[in-house]
Amino acid sequence: MRILILGAGVVGLNLAQQLSQEGHDIRCLDKDHALLKEIQERMDIMVVYGDAAKPSDLRAADIEKTDMVIAVTSSDALNLLACQIAGKFQVPHRVARIRNPELVGKGGLFTPQDLGIERVISPETIAMDTINRFMETPGAIEVADFADGEIRLCAFNVQESSPFAGVQLKDVRSTVDFHNFLIVAIEREDGVIIPKGEEEVKVGDLIFVILEKEKVHQFLPYVSEGYHKIKKVVIFAATQLGKSLAITLESQVEKVILVEPNMKRAEEAASTLSAHVVCGDITDEEILSEIGMKNTDYFIALSPDDEINILSCLFAKQHGAHYVITLENTSKYSSLIHYMDIDVVINPKLLTVGKILKDLRRGRISSIAKLYESEAEVIELEVLGNSPVVGHPLKSVNFPKDALIGAIIRHGSMIIPTGENMVYAGDKVIIFALPHAISKIEKLFDRA
């Protein structure tokens, strides 16, 4: 597929890199020479210096021969206009990133169809959904959903108190009362491994677990120390995302507090929210005492300033917040955050990349890459009728060493597979794999 990416920022760069690796013919257009140079240094794709709103510049990027336009510039208006221009050039698939929820989407003025766009990607909505998944799975370091939200993959740090510590994988389920789960991967200092039954779970491991979403609450007591129902959440910054999250949580949590240092924004938030709004500096001892940080289950920092978000999370954790989440607007501090006492980092730009890639792969294969900074991928794949793997016990299939089928979904039910299980046409399988194993997996599940 020939894909034209408009915008060479973080989202555009990551999309170009991933899609070119998958064999697509990629072009990237931007007005920033430095961004285009970075893309050229990283990969062998065509870059075009130009304006996404100028038909002549789009022609220079071969828009007339393009199958898909993905508009991810920093401007909502430019993304909308570029997609409309692409429609005039008969580009069949048009995707736009739109930050402003008042324009398009749930509660917005327009539908994508009104604006001639096939699909709208909203970073705020994606971030909201991600935060909600983490709050539904307290203690998780990574959370991803599959099978239309029915199956959940979670990553947890193994504590000394865990019943799994020191136990071989083949015996893990026998140590607890809940059995319908599978540990599909383990991350240690030396990287991610796809483990065998004899592998022992160790304290400090990061384990990736797959299970039915509705059964998550039964599993959490074994992996989330001090697990209990969330009663109190403190949100920092009355941004659009902060206010939207507060509104969502008001009906789910006993107490929601929004802290905003700017008086005008605090007053505006107080006039529209039922949540308790406090105007003040989140690093101020009096404010921390006033809001009762020591009794806070979740502290979520959502300001546009990464440094303030990181600092506020560290203060919150120091003053007793049980679990902290920070928004990362750039990747400037990514390598440092990993070593800080911060539980979860939400990067809307990288989440947007993941969402666009997942939508592009709709059909037989979809995947989520680089879970928790690893190279591993989780692939959700529909089994075709004549593929080599169909109708054979899994133990007899020459499955790649660094890959594992974590679940089979058949008629809406999840099966934790053993070597005796077989897959059939129409089944969906969820596979955890390291990069070099993915091409072998695709061959196993392609038509013979």
Strand order of the largest sheet: 3-2-1-4-5-6
Tally of individual helices: 14
Domain count: the total is 4
Radius of gyration: 23 Å
Shape: globular
Would you count the extended β strands for me? Answer: 22
- Unreliable spans are none
Which strand-content bin applies to the residues? 25-35%
Which percent bin holds the helix content?
25-40%
CATH architecture identity of the largest domain: 3-Layer(aba) Sandwich
Mean pLDDT: 89
Structural class by secondary-structure content: alpha/beta
CATH structural fold name of the largest domain: Rossmann fold
Assembly type of the chains comes to: single chain
Any idea of the CATH class of the largest domain?
A: Alpha Beta
Task: Characterize the biggest β-sheet.
Answer: 6 strands, parallel
Write structural notes for this entry:
- The protein has four domains: about 1-120, Rossmann fold; about 145-220, Alpha-Beta Plaits (2-Layer Sandwich), CATH 3.30.70; about 230-350, 3-Layer(aba) Sandwich (Rossmann fold); about 375-445, Alpha-Beta Plaits.
- The protein has helices spanning about 10-20, 35-40, 55-60, 75-90, 125-135, 170, 215-220, 240-250, 265-270, 285-290, 305-320, 335, 350-360, 440-445; strands at about 1-5, 25-30, 45-50, 70, 95, 120, 140-145, 150-155, 180-190, 190-195, 205-210, 230-235, 255-260, 275-280, 300, 325, 345, 365-370, 375-380, 405-410, 415, 430-435.
- The model has no long low-confidence stretch (mean pLDDT about 90).
- Helix 1 (about 10-20) packs parallel to helix 13 and helix 5 crosses helix 13 (about 350-360).
- About 30% of the residues lie in helices and about 25% in strands.
- A hairpin with a 7-residue loop joins strand 18 and strand 19.
- Strands 3-2-1-4-5-6 form a six-stranded parallel beta sheet, with helices on both faces. A six-stranded parallel beta sheet has the order 14-13-12-15-16-17, sandwiched between helices.
- With about 450 residues, it is α/β, with parallel strands linked by helices.
